[in-house]
């Protein structure tokens, strides 16, 4: 089934959460805090994540921050994240909303868009509108950090992300295949119709989900031009992973493109 943002997959929020349980969320949050301290003159009090999924980074940030918001377009994921926050005993405002046109009366010090969720911004107009909407809800000098696919994936120089893995938690097994050799790529739009297959075994509940959705990849110069065109941010740094020790270059360790934007 073809979808807009792999919404069928995201509707299985619990299995999604298990599938990505390998991520070191506390370490990634320390990275976000370190980058904020480096490039902002203010104290970090508030945090918002777009495409938050199960809101794991929000749950971690809520342990020390006054205001934390998780935004996702999946209603199932938003409900799941809110339940996780309640069980963890932290306060996270979970909101089902479109990140492209997002509006809020609240203001934040730090915003993030992680795990290559930028790839669902398929047009230049969508990117610019999104950047402008984020800038409106940031405090003066606020930061916006994005974790994107490395540009080498655009040119197929190397396979920069794993495409198949298995995870197990609490007796539930989840196997993911992200992408397929048969997926079509349009070099004009830089959009790939990315297929996804999830197999799950949850007690007597066993099944397979297949989904397909368009995802866009970006070059560094292209993204920098879009940021400049938005007129609301400046790029103050780049990293090659969610780690201050990995510079943005073509080395093997640099498997991501992580631009750091500051509100103009």
Automatic annotation (TrEMBL):
Entries under Pfam families matching the protein: Methyltransf_25
Chain ranges of the Methyltransferase domain: 48-142
Name by which UniProt lists this protein: Methyltransferase domain-containing protein
Species in which this protein is naturally found: Bdellovibrio bacteriovorus
């Amino acid at each position: 089934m073809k979808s807009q943002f792999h919404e069928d997959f995201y509707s299985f929020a619990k299995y999604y959460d298990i599938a990505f349980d390998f991520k070191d969320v506390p370490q990634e949050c320390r990275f976000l805090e370190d980058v904020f301290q480096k490039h902002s003159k203010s104290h970090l009090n508030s945090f918002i994540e777009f495409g938050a999924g199960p809101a794991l980074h929000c749950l971690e940030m809520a342990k020390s921050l006054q205001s934390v918001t998780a935004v996702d377009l999946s209603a199932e994921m938003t409900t799941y994240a809110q339940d996780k926050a309640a069980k963890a005993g932290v306060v996270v405002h979970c909101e089902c909303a479109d990140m492209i046109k997002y509006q809020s009366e609240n203001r934040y010090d730090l915003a993030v868009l992680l795990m290559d969720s930028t790839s669902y911004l398929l047009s230049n107009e969508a990117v610019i509108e999104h950047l402008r909407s984020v800038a409106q809800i940031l405090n003066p000098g606020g930061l916006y950090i994005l974790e994107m696919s490395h540009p080498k994936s655009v040119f197929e120089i190397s396979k920069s992300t794993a495409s198949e893995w298995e995870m197990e938690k609490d007796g539930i097994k989840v196997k993911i295949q992200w992408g397929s050799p048969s997926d079509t790529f349009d070099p004009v739009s830089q959009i790939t119709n990315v297929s996804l297959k999830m197999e799950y075994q949850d007690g007597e509940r066993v099944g397979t989900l297949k989904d397909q959705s368009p995802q866009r990849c970006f070059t560094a110069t292209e993204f920098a031009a879009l940021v400049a065109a938005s007129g609301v941010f400046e790029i103050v740094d780049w990293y090659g992973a969610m780690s201050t020790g990995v510079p943005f270059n073509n080395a093997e360790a640099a498997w991501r493109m992580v631009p750091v934007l500051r509100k103009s």
